[in-house]
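Researcher: Go.
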Amino acid sequence: MQKVNGSHFDFILKRGVAEIISETELSKLMESGRNLNLKQGFDPSAPDIHLGHAVGLRKLRQFQEMGHKVILIVGDWTARIGDPSGQSATRPMLSQEEIEFNAQTYLKQFFRVVDKNRTEVRWQSEWFGKFTLDEVIKLTSKFTIAQILAREDFNNRYRSGNPISLTEMLYPLLQAYDSVVIHADVEFGGIDQKFNCLLGRELQQFMGQTPQQVFLVPLLVGTDGTMKMSKSLGNYIGITEPSQEIYGKVMSIPDSMIIDYFNLVTDLPDMEIEEFQEQLHALTVNPMILKKRLAREIVTQFHDSSSATQAEAHFTRVFQERKTPEEIFECFFPHTPTETDLCQVDIAPTLIKEGLIKSQGELKRLLAQNAISLNGKRINSKIINARHGNILKIGKRNFVKILLK
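Model: Structure:
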């Protein structure tokens, strides 16, 4: 195992960490010289990874660089039965095809942050696919209803009279059993996973194993500045998004989130970030300057420095100087000639086909919000009169040149 100096050791255990249970025990494990099994669970209910997920994945990579191994558990078995969403509801059951698609997409993105050569991928169905009713009953006998209802989202729903299925209550037990199967030394998760991770620690002790340590990271607030980053809320920054999109989204975060983002998703030295914080507090720096630095750091991390430079030039030209981008996506639009030199165009089919909008409903919403313009003028209908070469702007960052020939 690679030797780590004290300052880097502190960086790993302090920076971007919400809670460690127990930090003393984990420190002893890390100093023992033994390569540890780091558990990371993945629910394949959605395929994409965003910057919020990267907070924990970056920690896994830091541990890997010290010689430890990540064991990534794909929750394919629990995804088939549905599980609690944390939003006082349940996620839908998924087909095997949906699970496979989401998992493969996730893995490609996962290994953009985490070292593939130091990762073992395990599928829950390896053990739960063979589980008997006898084994299920033995597992449930280890815990009480009162213990399960101590989980915050269950407790809230129980008190408000909302239903909680027995299936949902099984989910934390199944996650705990994963730790037993792989002999996890440390389980990683967001701070909202504390209850489930602690159940794993408790179940390991019941089974005669050394209890895992629990490493919890903060939840990254999304670009709206209020809610946890989430695709469903639309406040996310995807790690595979184009560099210009990542840069623009970072620039849209509230000033109050700048320091959190530096701490959680960059490797800038603590002293430099503390200096940024002092400058913001004393009003001696324009927050946009720091956000540009933050955006460059994040784009470089998931693309490269050249992409970061180009994304910054694009942002400056389009959003600060209010100019049209130098390079614009072009596509052909079906059209109907009119008596003038203009053509009648229904923009919906092409924008949906090219992935610039998701649906007719999204287009209707954007039009109602005056978020679409043609040559700089707002439009309020999907049917437009346009010429070859006209420029459509969709939302804040998407431009498309209309080709009619």
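Model: The chain has 18 helices and 14 strands.
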